[in-house]
Amino acid sequence: MLEALFVLVVAFGLFVVLPLLVLKAVFGVALWCLLLPFKVLGGLLELAVGLAIGLGKIAVTGAAVLAVLLGLALCLVLVPLLPLAAIAFGVFLLVKIL
């Protein structure tokens, strides 16, 4: 009786469980093969987006550096002219009053 139970359990495992495990493995490999091109394309798209964001950051940083340099140059040119502008404005007011 115990031998028959053992044979039944082994037969169940051999004819039911083992084919299900094989089918699961086969479907897993087939699904992986079907999805592989999409995974590759997704990786390439992620790389392209990352590169575009990086280039955008570099461009924005470059524009900011140019803006700062332009502002600094304008300050270096215009700040020394402020006393002359104040004198000219004072003369303008003096002429307008008189």
Q: How many strands?
A: 0
Low-pLDDT residue spans: none
Would you tell me the structural class of the helices and strands? mainly alpha
Number of helices: 2
Euclidean distance between termini CA atoms: 130 Å
| Overall number of domains | 1
State the major sheet.
none
Strand content: under 5%
Q: What's the alpha carbon Rg, rounded to whole Å?
A: 40 Å
The average pLDDT value, as a whole number, equals: 89
Query: Helix and strand succession?
Result: HH
Shape, principal axes of CA atoms: rod-shaped
Give an overview in words.
- This protein has 98 residues and is mainly alpha-helical.
- It has one domain.
- The protein is built from two helices and no strands.
- The model has no long low-confidence stretch (mean pLDDT 89).
Summary?
The chain is an all-alpha fold. Helices cover 95% and strands 0% of the residues.
Which structural traits does this protein have?
single chain, 98 residues, mainly alpha, rod-shaped
List the helices and strands and how they pair.
Blueprint: H1 2-78, H2 82-97
